[in-house]
Amino acid sequence: MKKGFFTIEGILQALIGFSALASGAVMMVFPDGRPMRMPLAMLEGSPFKDFFLPGLILFAVIGGGHAAAAVLVFRRHRLAGQAGATMGLGLMIWIFVQASMIGGGHWLQYLYFFLGTAEVVLSVLLLAGRESP
Questions:
Q1: Based on the number of CB atoms within 10 Å of its own CB, is 132 exposed (0-12), middle (13-18) or buried (19 or more)?
Q2: What is the pLDDT of residues 81-120, one digit of tens each?
Q3: Which of 31, 73, 78, 107 is most buried, judged by most C-beta within 10 A?
Q4: Which residues contact 45 (CB under 8 A, 6 or more apart)?
Q5: What's the whole-number mean pLDDT along residues 34-60?
């Protein structure tokens, strides 16, 4: 059963990591939001003038963090559960802050918040199944 949790967690983290790396890269290369159909008007009321900095954060923190967490899970590293819980909570915070700054209600926000929640639950199950020293 624990092996299944590792597999699901690793696949989930890899998919989130890949999508964040790709989206963050597009936002940095096209900070006007054009390819993703995100008008700069979305950022009114936020501290950002364009999508470059949010793209950099998405790429480095969410994408890079999830990619690293996926590697830990696939290697069955002892810190895989903690990394997964941290990245899942990080993703949930990212979505909450995003919805607070630019508005919520897009189906992708609900999806990624759910995926972050699933990641935390899987991480807790991994941590609970760990043998104590």
A1: exposed
A2: 999 999 999 999 999 999 999 888 899 999 999 999 999 9
A3: 73
A4: 101, 102
A5: 95
Q: Is the dihedral of CA 86, 87, 88, 93 positive or negative?
A: positive
**What token pair was written down for 45?**
């009321």
- Pairwise CA distance, residues 96 & 105, whole Å: 11
Q: φ and ψ at 48, to 5 degrees?
A: -105, 140
Taking the domains of the chain in order of start, what are their residue ranges?
2-31+48-129
